[in-house]
Structures are given as C-alpha cells and as structure tokens.
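User: Before I run my own analysis I want an independent prediction to cross-check against. Here's the chain; please return only the structure tokens and, at the end, one sentence I can use as a sanity check.
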Amino acid sequence: MKTDYDYIVIGGGSAGCIVAARLAENCAGTVLLLEAGDSCEKNPETLSADGFKYAFANDNVMIDRMSTPQSQCAHRTLYAGSGKGMGGSGSVNGMVYTRGDKLDFAQWPEGWQWEDVRPIFDTLEKHLRIRHREATAFTNKIITAAKTAGFAHKDGLNDGILNGFIGHNDMNFEGNARRSSYVAFIKPLSEENKITIKTRSVVTRILFNETKTASAVEAIIDNCKHTFQVNREVVLCAGALETPKLLMLSGIGPKQHLEALKIPVIHDAPGVGENLQDHPNVALFYRGKQAVDFAYPQVYGFQRCNKTTALPEQQADTCFAMIAAPVTLQQSLKRMAPANLLKGDLFFNPFLKKLVRLLVAGVMLIPAINNFINKLYGIAVILGKPLSRGCIRLQTANPADRAKIDLNFFENPHDIETLVEGIQLANKVVQHPELESWGNIPLMRETGSSDREKLKRWIRKNAMTTFHYCGSCAMGQNETAPVDLQLRLKGVTNVRVADASAIPEIPVSALNAPTMMVAWRAADFILQSQH
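Assistant: Structure tokens:
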C-alpha cells in the first residue's frame, strides 16, 4: 500500500470531491482522498434524483449525532446528522442549488464578495448542469397565492437577488440522475485512475513536525491504523461538525480545552469550533382536498420578515420551502422519530432505533393513514439569517467518541421573533383563495394562532435543524478567525480548510452551492501556490 502522497484530502463530500478532482485533473501531484463512508455505488439511491427520500433514512449514508440540550428549545436535544459516503450531504439532500444573495457575500471578507465568486458559480453550474423542475397545478397555485402576500415570481433564483421572490429553484439533477459533486467531478476521474480513493477510512488526527508543518494523517481502515505521509498539503473537507473535531484531536484549538483533555497543544486557536451557524426551521402542514401533485423541494421563497434587526433593508432573513408530505414524511419519520422519542444514549441503541422504525413503517401501512398523508403539503419556514451562534467541543480525547455540539438555537431573541413573523406570512399565503380551493386546513391548530407567545412556545417545541451547519472554522482577517482568506489554517503550515466550516456568515439559502464554491477556490489557491 502506497503511504505517501503530495496531497491528502480528508472527506469525500461535496467539497472534498471537488478539491481532490481538480488537483488530480491538473496534475498537481499524487492525491489521496479519505472518506469515512462507502462509495455511492454501494448505496444506489445516492445516485438517483428520486432517491433522496430513501437516502435520508439509510444509516449507511448518514452520520447520527445529537446536540446538547437546547435551553431555548424546551431543553430538547436536537438531531444533528449529516451525509456520509462519497458526495457527503450532497448525495442525500434534496438537490437544491442556490448561490445565495449578493448581500450575503457582502458580509464575507474582501475578495469573497459576489462579483469575486460569481465566475466560480458559473463554472460549477456547467459541470452540475443545474435546472429547475416544471411547474405543477399546486406549485402554480402556491406561487399565485404568494404574489398577493408580497412576493414576486422568479424561477431559478440564482441572480443574487432573493428578497421578495418565490419560484422554482434550480436543482442539480439530469433526467433521473443526481448531479452531485461526486458524479460531476470524481466519477470521470476515478475511471482513469488519476486519484486514489479510500472509503471506510476514518481519519483520527493530523500529525505535525517540530515546525508545526503537517507531516502525516492517521486513519483507521478495516480496524487497523494507517499513517499516510503528506508532501505538500492536507485539505480538510470533513464538514462543519467534523473538521473542528479533527483539528482539536490534532492539537489545534482552544488551549485550555485541549489541555484539560491532555491533548498536546500544537497551536492555540480559540476560534476552532466557535461561530457554529445553522438554519433552524419549523414545518407547517396543511391538508388539501386532493393528493399533492409535486414530489421535490422545488419551490422556494425569500423574504425580509423581521424589520428590527441590523441587516440591510433589502436583505432576506427567512426562506420558505414547499414540502410534499407523501414523498418525504415516511422516510423522514424513520430518521427523526427515534431522535425525538429515544432520549440520551438510547438514541444510539440500534435495537431500540430499529423498533421505533418498525412502528413507523407499520403505521404507514394503514390505508387511512396513507390517504391522509397523500393530501398533506407543508411550508418549511427557515430562519435564513440567524444571529445566534453555537459551538463544538470534544468530550474526550478518543476520536471514536462523539463531540459536544451546542447549536444554541434562539439564544438571540431576534431569531425566534423572525420565525414568528415567517409563520404568520406563510399562513397569509395559504389563506389565499387559490389555496382555499385546493384545501388549506392547518394540521396543527397552534400554528394558525395570532398569539405571538403561543407561537413562540410551539416553535421551541418543534424547531429542528435544516442541516446547514457552517462557520466553525471561519475564514477572516481578524485574530479570532482560525483560517485566512486563502483558506490556510493559521499558526501551522500545509493545512487548508475547504468546506462549510470556513464560511464566515451563513447565507440565507441552502449551503451546498456556496460550499462547492469554497472548495473550487481552495483548489485554485493550491494550484496557484505551485507557480
């Protein structure tokens, strides 16, 4: 087995596939890609455009995690999973592709503004072949209804102006196939043997020499420890929850925290694991008079709901996503019901988890239940610009132990006020005659209340993650930012962070497109450094 490489990319998700493929394609040197999960071919639903709902319920392609008890969410622990395997979360998500708003990038450092990154998005989209899906009777009705509530119709939603618009969002698919970064970038290369890929390879730490230069990566493969020497750079693409964990295990993080766990400190980096951001959401469901006629998360709207925050006047702070219950609810419940019902370590008991899923599957076999669900549609009200910040810390120095994840939802009181406004706007849309004729009976009576305190209590009991974690190793010029503007890890040599961890301020939109953009730029920086 070859044990030394010029570049080692940790994580074969949306970011890692792009970084590794571009380095290999440009003959930058030998490239090793280490991925903790399986190949996509072993889980074919990750390659299918229709497979996202099944992938979400497949333990082989998801990492299960739970947050710490959330003080502002009725002290609940929240599910904080993410994709695993080639393509990462980009192989299990709904294929939504949104760049974000120009004003999102105005919050990023100099050199990362909209006009700086727009050409990269243009290039990415040629590879991913993005497009939006055709309208249906229902999606036309919801758009018509939204127009009377202050939205304007625009499909695609990738021109950088999101506030006040609703439409059929672009998605990365082609025919019946998903166009993930694995499909678009790695698959053509791997067939030509231009890259070494090792799946089921769990990286445990990065090794540094006396000059704080990354010298090797340790990984567990088939229950055996392997050490791979690196000649040029280690590129971290493990995701916003795993990248800071790996850095701390490697001795890069808050000094006092590492010393308390008896981890030798390579570099004191207080910002590693801080600034964690995510999009909390609540789902409002309504019962129609007939079965829903759409199957994908294809209609999105963006609006400024809370006028009292310091965001620019034209900055959208809330995202609205239309949900088709029949194609998502059963598989979502198989994933989420154990997380909601099994407390603490019970959630990680495979027998109990299987038992809950069997109960869910049994209930779904009842014809009356199926008939009921077939007529359900929903609006996910997503807090697009949260002001609260969470953090990630180790619990032990053992790489096999789960990290401590505090999402810290609603710590800033403006956040829950914004969601209340979003719920009221969603209800206004659904009350339009177009939706009344389709059917618009709220599934949960509380969500139609005009009592703000009642809505806040409901939000605290029902909010969940949108799986858009970022910011935990943020880039920036300030001293607290662990990563510089070329994505190099400060204080050490030959390490870059090229995933959503590096995003300094969360965009109002989904993060798959911005994450891939960050990865493309990371490869550019590496290739430029060779000249």
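Sanity check: The chain has two domains: 1-66+78-130+172-241+469-531, 132-170+280-385+410-462.
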